[in-house]
Every structure is written in C-alpha cells, then in structure tokens.
Specification:
The protein contains two helices and 24 strands. The protein has helices spanning 2-22, 213-216; strands spanning 25-29, 32-38, 44-50, 61-64, 67-68, 77-83, 88-93, 100-111, 128-130, 137-141, 152-160, 163-164, 167-169, 175-179, 192-200, 203-211, 226-228, 232-234, 250-258, 268-274, 278-280, 287-296, 307-312, 323-325. A hairpin with a 6-residue loop joins strand 9 (128-130) and strand 10.
Length: 326
C-alpha cells in the first residue's frame, strides 16, 4: 500500500513539474523560443514545434543543427525533448535531404539569469553608453569574454516610456547605435531602457541598462587646441556640441603634467577648472604637457577625452603653432 501511494505521489509531482516547465517556454521573436530552466536543477522538457500551416499535408522531416534525427522525426507538428542546456536550431525539410521549409531556434536561459558568462563585467556594468550631445543619438557597447568570443546578438530592444527607439547593431556585434527623437530643449521625464539578448551556442543571456540621456552625454574631444605668445592656450567647442553654447555650456578641466607623462597621470603640476575656452599659463617650467577636457557644466556628466599639447620652451614657438597629439 505504501509503495502504491509513493508511486501515485511521484506521478503527481512529475506531472506538476512537467506543467510548470511548459509555462517556462516563451516566444522571444519569430522563429526563436526561450526555455527558462532552473539554475541548480537538470531539466528535461518537451517543446512543441510546428513547421507551418502551409505544410500540413507534406511529408515533413526534422533536423537539429543540420543533423537528421535517428530514428527520423517526421510530421508538421512534433515535440522534441530538450535536456538541460542542449537547445539548438531545429529545421524542417520536404525530405531527409530535401528543401528547407522553416526553422525554430530553441535557446536556454538560466532562471534566475544572474550567473552571466558571455559579457565582461567592467566598471559601470556590462553595457557602456555615451552620446555626443542632446539630439537623441546614443551608442552602447559591450565586450564579450574570451571564452565566449563567438557569442552573437539575437535581439536588441530600446524604449522610453513605452515608445520604441530604433537601433542598428554595429557590424562587429559589439555595440548598437540608437536614435531617440527627443527635443534637445525638453527636460527628460523618463529613463531610456536598453535590453540586449545575446547567445553563445544555445545559451541565452539578457543584459539591461537604464539611463537618462543627460547621464551619458560626453562632449567630443576639444578641437583646434593651439598656443599664442608661448603661454596662452585656446581651443574650440566640438562641432558636434549643441548650439547655442550659452544654453548648452561646457566647463573645462585644465591640467599641466610633467613632460613624458600622460594627461591621466597623478604627477601633475597644476589643475584648475574654467568656463572659458582659453587659459594663460603663468608658471615657469620649460617643458610640460598642457591637457584640457570638457563636460556639461550644468549636468556634470562624463568628461570628454583629453586634448593635449606638448610645450618645450627651449625650442622657438611660432604663434599659433603647437606640438599637439591628436
């Protein structure tokens, strides 16, 4: 009697588990379904596949990742057993070696999806975004880990307050360019939400980033840095920056470092901030590097990359000429 009850209980639990697993199958996009499986548990789930209504009366044969099933899997509507992370691309054909008809990609996502292995996690997270101004265009990038360098992007979604933002994937699959139709003078009320679906073989991972445009606007490198009378430095606003400059003002960080050091060096001679696009150096060193960069003076967002000028007072300097590294 106890054995019988045990068998009944196991059957009930098995049925409940199977039903629960069925609810974990989601359609991500056309021809792509996602099976969410528990992180610490093995799974065996039957996934229903359909070749298509137009092939209802055809002798349909199925393949997985280009390989025929043994014994053959036939029929317009079939079920395939997916074990653990062993998803793949299931194609249907008119015969074992015949014409391709349709396909379904089955991807596996761990649930919860908090053990990521595809993208590197650097300072600021997995995804890094920037914009040159407030016109609505922004670029987001990511870096694959060395062991998952073959990973490919399945889908990118960007939206702001239920409005889709069009994006175009970079040719190398390591970033995306998006264009939000936002008026430069309008204050942002809602954050931009970016979601990247990326797969390595059959494993799917989902990465998200949320931000205001004002948090990621980084001015371009300051152009036309030049020197006058040996100690007066001038530069221009970037061409890509918003106009008028009085409304979209920049502030500038100026740093002098010893010759041979980079602008990021902590071994500095002086460091000041100004709102005007010129600066007069009044110190005595004969050799130094003049560094300048910009940020939005009102939002205090990211700094631009450094523009720099190498000064050597032992050599005669012609007014307007500067030995500048681009």
């Amino acid at each position: 009697m106890r054995t019988f009850l045990f068998m009944v209980l196991c059957a009930v639990l098995s049925g409940a588990s199977s039903d629960s697993q069925q609810t974990d199958i989601e359609t991500l996009m056309d021809n792509v379904v996602v099976l969410k499986v528990p992180v610490f548990m093995g799974s065996m789930v039957h996934v229903p596949l359909t070749c298509g209504g137009a092939f209802q009366n055809e002798a349909v044969f199925w393949k997985k990742n280009g390989q025929a099933f043994d014994p053959p899997l036939m029929g317009n509507q079939v079920q395939v057993l997916v074990e653990e992370m062993k998803g793949g691309n299931y194609t249907c054909h008119l015969s074992p070696s015949g014409e391709y008809l349709n396909h379904t990609m089955i991807l596996i996502q761990l649930n919860p999806d908090n053990r990521t292995v595809i993208l590197e996690n650097g300072e600021g997270g997995h995804i890094h975004c920037s914009a040159p101004n407030y016109k609505g265009s922004f670029h987001c990038r990511w870096r694959r880990t060395q062991r998952r360098s073959d990973a490919s992007v399945v889908l990118v979604k960007a939206e702001r307050y239920m409005e889709d933002i069009p994006c175009e994937l970079d040719a190398n699959g390591s970033g995306v360019e998006c264009q939000n139709t936002l008026c430069s003078y309008k204050e942002e009320q809602h954050r931009i939400s970016l979601t990247v679906y990326i797969r390595s073989h059959a494993r799917l991972e989902v990465y998200t980033k949320s931000f205001y445009l004002r948090e990621i606007v980084r001015p371009a490198k300051l152009p036309n840095l030049h020197i006058i009378d040996g100690n007066v430095f001038k530069w221009d606003y970037p061409e890509s920056w918003e106009k008028p400059c009085t409304f979209f003002g920049l502030q500038f960080e100026i740093k002098l470092v010893h010759s041979g050091h980079s602008c990021n060096s902590e071994n500095q001679i002086m460091n000041v901030t100004t709102d005007v696009a010129n600066y007069t150096v009044s110190i005595q060193p004969k050799k130094y590097i003049f560094c300048v960069r910009a940020q939005d003076k009102f939002t205090r967002g990211p700094w631009s990359h450094w523009s720099q000028c190498t000064v050597n007072k032992h050599n005669a300097l012609v007014p307007g000429h500067c030995s500048q590294e681009q």
